[in-house]
Amino acid sequence: MQFAMNHLWCFALAAALASSAGHAETLTREQIQQRLASPAADFRNLEAPGANLSGINFAGATLFGANLKGANLSNANLARCNLNVAILRDAVLVNADLRDAKLFSSVGANADLSKADLRGAQLMGNFDHAKLEGANLEQVQGAADMRNQPMGLVRLVLVNARLKGARLANANLSRADLTFADLREADLTGVNLTRAKLVGADFSGATLTDVTLDGAEIQQAIFKGAVGMDTLRGLETAEGRDSAIFDR
Asked: Cβ neighbours of residue 82 under 8 Å, at least 6 residues apart?
């Protein structure tokens, strides 16, 4: 029940913010490129579902509330972009540059972010079933802000996400939901997973050096072949240790 309410709250927030920000605007690829020639390009509430925007340099642009569902943003430069409340469901962002981008309450379910660079990005929204194999999420800020949770927990959702071989060193994923996420061979050095939901997550062969698990839910999580298990912090306070799978 709480899980459903959390998701509904995320979607309700996204809809409310988008509707209050102004009218949607539909632009062609050519029109977008022309506008990008001006400084401080603003694409607030852009309507570009399914558009081919591959390779475009959006660096620093505002894409608040943009509808990019199913759009092709492969190799696009989205560094420092404001993508808050943006819809990226089913979008293709392979090799995209999202360094220091803001993605608060964004929807990236089923998006393909394979090998994308998200270093230092604020990632807070629904990215369930997203593909993040080989992606760089070092120093990502994905921790829930407990100071402003009036209608339930707004957090990073990576349920069933594919993060095999991803780099997450020093990311803050406190209270994130990584239920059944594939984190095989990923580098999680120094990651904060305090109170994160890790039920059924697969950490086989992952690097877990100095990872914090205080109060995390690890029922049926798999830790076979993981490196740095002796440096884990808070494992004794994690819930579901009896059903988690460790090396014998």
From this structure: 61, 62, 63, 64, 101, 102
Of 43, 100, 31, which Cα lies nearest the Cα of 68? Answer: 43
Question: Do 153 and 174 meet the contact criterion of CB atoms below 8 Å apart?
Answer: no
Instruction: Report the alpha-carbon distance of residue 57 to residue 80 in Å, rounded.
Output: 11
pLDDT digits (tens, 9 = 90+) for 107-160: 999 999 999 999 999 999 999 999 999 999 999 999 987 665 555 567 899 999
- CA 63, 107, 143, 209 dihedral sign is negative
Task: Identify the three-state secondary structure at position 142.
Answer: coil
Question: Taking Cα atoms as reference points, which of 197, 189, 190, 191 lies closest to residue 215?
Answer: 197
Is the whole-model pTM more than 0.85?
Answer: yes
If phi > 0 it is left, if psi is from -120 to 50 it is alpha, else beta; for residue 79 that is beta
Type of residue at 119? R
User: Which residues lie below 8 Å from residue 37, measured CB to CB, with a gap of 6+?
Assistant: none
- Dihedral sign, CA of 40, 156, 93, 188? positive
CA distance 46 to 25: 5
